[in-house]
Amino acid sequence: MKQLITLLFLAFIIVACGGGEDAPSEAPLASANKVEAKEINVKKIWKVRCIACHGIDGTMGTNGAANLKLSDKDMDYRVNIIKNGSENGVMTAFGEILDEDEVKAMAQFTMDLRED
C-alpha cells in the first residue's frame, strides 16, 4: 500500500510539473501580419542527434556515416537524407523528429562543414 501511494504521489508531481517541459508562450504577436522567426539551435541538434556517428566535425564515420567534410552532395540530397534516412538504413530518418525548418537548417550546417 505504501508503494502504491508513493507511486501515485510521484505521478501527480510529474503531471503537475508538466514532465519538465516548458509550456509554450501565450504572448500575442505585435502584429497579425508579422511572423516571428523561429530560432534553430543547430549546434544543439547536432550534439543530440548527429555527433554519435558523424563526430564533432563531421569526419568520424561511425557505423558507416558519411564524412561530411568530403561529401559533395547538394542541399536537396542532404535535406532528403536527413528527413527520410538513407536507403541502406545507415542514416536514421529525422523527418518525424525535426520540423521542416530544422531539417533545412541541419542540411545547411552539414554543407558548411565541407572543405572547399
Which structural traits does this protein have?
Cytochrome Bc1 Complex, Chain D, domain 2; mainly alpha; 0% strand; 116 residues; iron
Could you write a compact summary of the structure shown?
With 116 residues, the protein is mainly α. The protein has a domain at 42-113: Orthogonal Bundle (Cytochrome Bc1 Complex, Chain D, domain 2), CATH 1.10.760.
Description:
The chain has 116 residues and is mostly helical. Helix content is 46%, strand content 0%. It is elongated, with a radius of gyration of 20 Å. The N and C termini lie far apart (66 Å). It holds the Pfam family Cytochrome_CBB3. Keywords: Heme, Iron, Metal-binding, Signal. Residues 1-18 form the signal peptide.
Question: If you average the pLDDT, what whole number results?
Answer: 81
In the CATH scheme, the class of the domain at 42-113 would be Mainly Alpha
SSE series: HHHH
Structural class by sheet pairing and helices: mainly alpha
Low-confidence parts: 18-35
Radius of gyration: 20 Å
The separation of the N and C termini measures 66 Å
For the record, the CATH architecture of the domain at 42-113 stands as Orthogonal Bundle
Q: Describe the largest sheet.
A: none
Question: What portion of the residues fall into strands of 2 or more residues?
Answer: under 5%
Count the E strands: 0
Shape: elongated
CATH homologous superfamily descriptor of the domain at 42-113 = Cytochrome c-like domain
Helix % is 40-55%
CATH topology title of the domain at 42-113? Cytochrome Bc1 Complex, Chain D, domain 2
Number of helices: 4
